[in-house]
Amino acid sequence: MRLDRRTFMGSTAAAAATLNAPMVMGMAHGKPRVVVIGGGAGGATAARYIAKDSKGAIDVTLVEPTRKYYTCFFSNLYIGGFRDLASIGHTYGKLAAEYGINVVHDWAVGVDRDKKEVALAGGARLPYDRLVISPGIDFIDGSVPGWDVTSQNRMPHAYKAGSQTELLKAQIMAMPQGGTYAMVAPPNPYRCPPGPYERVSMVAHLLKQHNPTAKIIIADPKPKFSKMALFQEGWANHYDGMIEWIGPDFGGDKVEVRPDAMELVIDGEVTRVDVCNVIPAMKAGRIVELAGINDGNWAPVVPHTMASRVDENIHVLGDSSAQGDMPKSGFSANSQAKVCAMAVRAALTDSKLFPARFSNTCWSLLATDDGVKVGANYEATDEKIAKTDGFISKTGEDAALRKQTYEESVGWYAGIAADMFG
Amino acid sequence: MKVPVTAMLGLAFGALSGAGAALAAYVGDPERGAEIFRKCASCHAVGEGAKNKVGPHLNGVFGRRAGSIDGFRYSKALRRMGDDGLIWNGETLDAYIENPKALVSKTRMNFRGLKEHDDREDVLAYLRQFSDDPQNIPEAEPTAVHEVDLPPEVLALRGDPAYGEYLAGECVTCHQAGGSDEGIPSITGWPEEDFVIALHAYKRKLRPHPVMQMITSRLSDEEIAALAAYFNGLE
Ligand SMILES: Cc1cc2nc3c(=O)[nH]c(=O)nc-3n(C[C@H](O)[C@H](O)[C@H](O)COP(=O)(O)OP(=O)(O)OC[C@H]3O[C@@H](n4cnc5c(N)ncnc54)[C@H](O)[C@@H]3O)c2cc1C
Question: Among A271, A395, A396, A399, which residue's CB has the most CB atoms within a 10 Å radius?
Fold first, then answer.
């Protein structure tokens, strides 16, 4: 039997009824089954922890279209020349071979919440007892007038890593001497709050070596941004006069692009640019909407378990979730995945449920050996994941501390990659 | 080597009259301290013309960043603490010489520590005479006097490795379960006691690192013991 998209989407109303039904454990069909959609920071971690900690008691299937996952984290460092592309690409071999996870390279195109089945683009259907969805972000159509996905070759976003990142770097390297790189920064909320500004730092670092008279313009709809004082200090120290940030006071929120002419229009004023890095407004990965578990652009979740507020058999992780105070970061997604894995195991087996704990730290590189960080602890309340305490690097820190902070970030990258992919 | 005790004492009293009684806790007996310093002198020189020996010379140690004497080969761990912002003052020195490993787990200072409070106070009073400007020495908050060594009941707690495994989920995003030491120190296979002491040193903010201070701020004594047990079991 073929399931078309309509069958899946039509199930929203009926699903409300299943919320009250007693939970069916996986016993009727043998081992309980977990399907994970998305093999990124949230999904790969959740799949690995469920498989590892249940020691074979739970069947785990991971659905991910790409055979190689390029991390967005450190993709800016690739642009800056601090990493090569191969070093941020990861495959799923260990998850399959060492953890017994069934890795399926396909797209999920629908979720039948009544039947508890996921439909794949290739036609297969995967039954689940619990479903974990961590599909990252998609872009909101029309959020930057003049730009849509068909323009991403001329005006790349490079906000999903891989070929887009490579393309952006190639375009920057091909800029004429003294040319202009422009970024259209996204409105809140979006993945990786310091990401666009770390990107600018890395682009400046690259240009300083290859094209020192080049200019950088950022059109920004936000009056302030993450680690703003640290970035501005770093830009003044390392790239003085190269970077112009145009906030909403000067029209940064009234932007249009013309990909064919390579023009950026800020508050009616037209500028011809050589590279235009458009980072549109974001929403949850499309499958969240197809599953009917979104409220507006994101999927609300119960903080204690990361279960969807719409369907308790589905957990939503990472960028796609609306959880409260945590930033949309790889670190957050990884942290949420472990809470989710514990909750899923407790629901399907007799393992213990410990209280949820979350934390996040995000590093950014400003220039060679000049790293900064921001981080916080979070706790689950009934209402949201709430920030309890945090820290941020200070302006004016000495070089030794900044270098150490950068080295830590390299350690963290290796750590989180091992935690995701084994 | 001749020590100008009287002149120095005069300075110390000057500082006292201005700063009030809070500082009194740090004024030991430098003459007795000179005697006790013999325990350090096999490795450290202090005073005019002092050179590095097994350990770095200790002139001007108050107010100086840990691990910052040029030309001395410090351990990676002590240098890291210095880079983190560890500054030697009455409080941090007291902690380090009470139990060097509490402050810097992998320090090369192979010394079991001065367990008597008065001995430390005296030796620090002696060392303070060789720091430039005793009045201006940055002190820790007067209220922030910590006992470094942990109460025996805290050290005696036996952790549950299963709970430790769950809690460790938070750690292995940074500290690799495989034990790599790249950029972030390895924490696998440590003696449990060293591990417990290190985490409490962050929790009490004796160690300066903001991430680890934050992480440990919400760990209970039992949770620290559980983590120590779990990571001890990883090779
Ligand atoms: C430039 C940049 C720099 C960043 N730097 C950092 C940093 O330094 N630190 C940090 O912590 N975070 C950083 N981030 C943020 C981080 O990359 C994301 O927050 C994180 O990847 C979110 O994890 P996720 O699991 O929600 O989504 P992702 O990691 O994006 O994973 C989603 C996966 O789901 C798959 N998928 C999507 N739809 C489907 C479907 N229908 N069926 C099957 N599979 C699907 C995708 O192919 C993808 O592999 C950065 C992001 C960017 C863009």
Answer: A271
Q: Is the dihedral of CA A228, A82, A88, A363 positive or negative?
A: negative
- With beta carbons under 8 A apart, name residues in chain A contacting B182: 410-411, 414
Query: Would B146 be classed as within a structural domain?
Result: no
Q: Is the bond preceding A355 in cis, omega lying within 30 degrees of 0?
A: no
DSSP letter, residue B130: T
Across A21-101, where does the E strand assignment appear? 33-37, 59-63, 68-70, 89-91
Q: What is the mean pLDDT of residues B164-183?
A: 94
For residue B180, the distance in angstroms to the closest alpha carbon of chain A comes to 9
Closest residue to atom 19 of ligand 1, CA basis: A329
The atom of ligand 1 lying closest to the CA of A107 is 42
Domain edge (last residue) among B88, B106, B136: B136
Q: What atom in ligand 1 is closest to the CA of residue A165? A: 1
Mean pLDDT across chain B, nearest whole number? Answer: 85
Distance CA A156, CA A169 (A): 10
Q: How far is CA B177 from the centre of its chain?
A: 27
The four Cα atoms A68, A69, A71, A77 give a dihedral, to 10 degrees, of 20
The answer to whether residues B147 and B115 touch, using CB atoms and an 8 Å cutoff, is no
Residue A98 alpha carbon to ligand 1 centre in Å: 23
Same domain, A153 and A251: yes
Q: Around Cβ B205, how many Cβ atoms within 10 Å?
A: 16
Rounded CA-CA distance B221/B229 in Å is 12
A265 shares its domain with A308: no
pLDDT at B151: 87
| Neighbour count for residue A121 (Cβ, 10 Å) | 12
Could you give the CA distance from residue A392 to residue B85 in angstroms, rounded to a whole number? 15
Q: Are B130 and B86 in the same domain?
A: yes
- Give the CATH number, domain containing residue B39: 1.10.760.10
The C-alpha atoms of residue B196 and residue B191 are separated, in whole angstroms, by 9
Contacts of A415 in chain B (CB under 8 A): 172-176, 180, 184
**What confidence score (pLDDT) does residue A191 get?**
98
Q: Are residues A147 and A276 in the same domain?
A: yes
Residues 6+ apart with CB under 8 A from A148: A141, A142
Binding-face residues of B in 56-95 toward A, CB within 8 A: 80, 82-85
The pTM for the full model equals 0.90
ipTM exceeding the 0.85 mark: yes
Portion 125-184 of B in contact with A at CB < 8 A: 162-163, 165-167, 169-170, 172-178, 180, 182-184
Q: Is A126 helix (H, G, I), strand (E, B) or coil?
A: strand
Q: How far apart are CA B113 and CA A383, in angstroms?
A: 49
Burial of A14 (0-12, 13-18, 19+ CB in 10 A): exposed
Total beta-carbon pairs less than 8 A apart between chain A and chain B: 85
Domain harbouring A133, CATH code: 3.50.50.60
Looking at the fold, whether A268 and A147 belong to one and the same domain comes out as yes
* A408 vs B contacts (CB less than 8 Å): 174, 183-184, 211
Chain B hits for A386, Cβ within 8 Å: none
Q: What is the pLDDT of residues A35-68, one digit of tens each?
A: 999 999 999 999 999 999 999 999 999 999 999 9
Sign of CA dihedral A241, A242, A243, A244: positive
